[in-house]
Amino acid sequence: MEKRIAIIEGDGIGPEIMAEAVKVLRCIEQLYGHSFTYVPVCAGGCAIDRFGTSLPKESLQACLDSDSVLLAAVGGPKWDGVDPSIRPEKALLSIRKELGLYANLRPAKIFSQLKDASPLKPSIVEKGIDFMVVRELIGGVYFGAKKTEEVDGELYASDNMCYYEHEIRRIAHTAFQTARKRHSRVVSVDKANVLDTSRLWRKIVHEVAEEYPDVQCADMLVDNAAMQIVKDPAQFDVVVTENMFGDILSDEASMITGSIGLIPSASLGESKRGMYEPIHGSAPDIAGQNIANPIGMILSAGLMLKYAFDLDEEQKLIEEAVEQVLIDGYRCSDIMEEGKKKLTCSEMGDQIVETMQKIKG
Q1: Is 32 tagged catalytic?
Q2: pTM for the full predicted model
Q3: H/E stretch holding 129
Q4: Is 247 annotated as catalytic?
Q5: Would you call 223 a catalytic residue per the annotation?
C-alpha cells in the first residue's frame, strides 16, 4: 500500500511526539511492506511566526492533496495576543471545515496497568472505563456568527449556536454505526430542557434511532452526563453530542482514564481521509525537554491506519505493543509510578517499536 500523509508537527511538544509516531509508522512500513510518503505541513503558531497566518493556503492544499492528516498539537501562550482570525486554533477549525470532518471520535479507555492513576475511586474504576465520545465537529456555537459591540454604553458579545437537520442526522448515523461495532448502546447528550438546538437534536436523533432497532438509545441532559461520567462511567458505550458539549465532556472523560497524554482521536467526514491527533495540547512548558508522553500521538497514528487506510491488523499491533510496554512497567514522567522504569519521549517510541517487532516475530 502507498499512501501520502500530511504531517503537522505544530507547536510546543508537537515535533517531539510526532517524531515518535513517524518512527512507529516506519516500523509498520517495514513489517508489512507498505510505503508512506510524509509531507511536512506548517500550521499553527509556527506558521504565524513564519508566514503571518496560522494556515497558509499551501498548507491547506497539502492537506487536501493527502490521503490523511496526522496532527500533533498547535498553540500556546506565545500567540494569545494575535488577531482572533489567525490564532493557532483557527487552523484546526479551518482544516476540519475544508476537509468536511464533521465527526470526532474520542475513545475513553483505561489501561488496566494504569488503573491506580485514575482520580476515581477503585470501586468505580474496577467496573471498567471503555466508551467512545462521538462529537459533532463543524457546527454549533464554535462556527456560528459572532460579534462584540457596544450597546447602551457597555460591551455586548454574542455567539450563535446553530444546527441544520442534516448536520445532526449525519453525526447520529456515525454514532449508531460506531455502536454497532461496540456494544450497541448510544446515549445522546443535549440540553433539550433549555435550548431549541437541543430539542431539534433530540428529535433527529430519535428519527435516526428507528433505523437501528438493534441499538439501544437513551437521552441524557449534559449536566447529568457530566456527573454520570465520573460517578459510573461503565454505563456508557457510545456518547453522541454537539460540538461544545462534546469538547467539554471528552476532556473530562480523558482525565478519568489516568492521563490525557494517552488518548488519541479521529476526525472523520464522508471520505476516509480524516485528521488524527492526540487530545492533549502543545504543553509549551515541557517542550524541548524530551519528557512528553508520545503514546496518545502514536495511538492516533494507529487510528489513522484503521479508519483512513483500513489497516486493522496494523492498528491492532500498535495498540498491543503499547499495552505490552505498560505491562512491562515502562512509563513516561506524566504516568510515572514508584517501582516503574522511567523513559524519555524518544525512549518510549523506541520501546514501542522494539515491542512491535517482537510481537510480529
Answers
A1: no
A2: 0.87
A3: none
A4: yes
A5: yes
